[in-house]
């Protein structure tokens, strides 16, 4: 069995007296899509903040690619290959879709492009941005203002922006939130196509999407892991059904 790319051990975070993540341990293998589910307020987003470095942990360790990154700030984690999208959209609406991704490519590769002339540098940035847009199904929307894209297309663009950092691990916080059926299906297809190429941690409330996509599911309830493993096994766990899935799993 290959080594986990992400290894979270006994992670804790409290806000005042409220313990929001409580000795959370989980592993994500290279290429695995690992879903984290749980009721509202279970601590899922907080856990993602702790993994991405947005929030310092009170205890526990985060290892990435075998390295202890627990004390590293967010930008250092991005540099090592952890990318995330936010529930709040982070695109620049006044720029085209292509420019949004090209800026992210430039942000990553500023130094490696500096030996090129201006024109070739721009071409190289645009080529890479165009291929990322293609990957998320937005090739035909490249020259449109990002602000004019549909909600689903904006979420796809955010994924392309995250991919521009050349991540090895993608952290996605509710990428299907606020979408209709058709848009959801498009984003699910994008995630399916990324699966295997990137390790992905997916927080999602859409159970159909979770069980269609996930290789492994971890369930949080009141900050604690109450189940983790094969989606079918997790789905049939009485404790999980009681805590979260309820009638949906019946
Ligand atoms: N900065 C903060 N200060 C105080 N309490 C916080 C803070 N951030 C989160 N919380 C609390 O921590 C708990 C867990 O929040 P979190 O957003 O991690 O849950 P979640 O599982 O992602 O929920 P949802 O599914 O609704 O997004 C909630 O009770 C929330 O109110």
Automatic annotation (TrEMBL):
Q: Name one Pfam family in it.
A: ABC_tran
Annotated PROSITE patterns: ABC_TRANSPORTER_1, ABC_TRANSPORTER_2
GO CC term (a single one): plasma membrane
Coiled-coil annotated spans: none
Domain ABC transporter stretches: 6-247
Which GO terms label this protein's molecular function in UniProt?
A: ATP binding; ATP hydrolysis activity
Taxonomy, superkingdom: Bacteria
The reply on keyword Thylakoid is no
Q: What InterPro entries would the database entry show?
A: AAA+_ATPase, ABC_AA/LPS_Transport, ABC_transporter-like_ATP-bd, ABC_transporter-like_CS, BCA_ABC_TP_C, P-loop_NTPase
Q: Which UniProt keywords apply?
A: ATP-binding, Nucleotide-binding, Transport
Family membership noted in the UniProt record: Belongs to the ABC transporter superfamily.
The identity of this protein, by name, is ABC transporter
């Amino acid at each position: 069995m290959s080594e986990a790319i992400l290894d979270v051990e006994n992670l804790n975070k409290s806000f005042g007296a409220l313990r929001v993540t409580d000795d959370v341990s989980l592993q994500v293998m290279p290429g695995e899509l690992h879903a984290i589910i749980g009721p509202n307020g279970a601590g899922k987003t907080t856990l993602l903040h702790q993994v991405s470095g947005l929030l310092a942990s009170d205890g526990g360790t985060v290892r990435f690619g075998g390295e202890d990154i627990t004390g590293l700030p967010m930008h250092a984690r991005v540099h090592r290959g952890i990318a995330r999208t936010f529930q709040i959209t982070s695109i620049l609406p006044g720029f085209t879709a292509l420019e949004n991704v090209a800026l992210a490519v430039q942000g990553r590769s500023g130094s490696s492009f500096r030996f090129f002339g201006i024109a070739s540098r721009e071409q190289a940035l645009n080529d890479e941005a165009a291929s990322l847009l293609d990957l998320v199904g937005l090739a035909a929307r490249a020259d449109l203002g990002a602000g004019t894209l549909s909600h689903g297309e904006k979420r796809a663009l955010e994924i392309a922006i995250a991919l521009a950092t050349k991540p090895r691990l993608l952290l996605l916080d509710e990428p299907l939130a606020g979408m209709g059926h058709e848009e959801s299906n498009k984003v699910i297809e994008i995630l399916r196509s990324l699966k295997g190429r990137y390790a992905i941690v997916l927080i999602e409330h859409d159970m159909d999407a979770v069980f269609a996509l996930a290789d492994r599911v971890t369930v949080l309830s009141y900050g604690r892991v109450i189940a983790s493993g094969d989606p079918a096994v997790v789905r049939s766990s009485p404790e999980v059904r009681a805590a979260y899935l309820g009638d949906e799993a019946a």
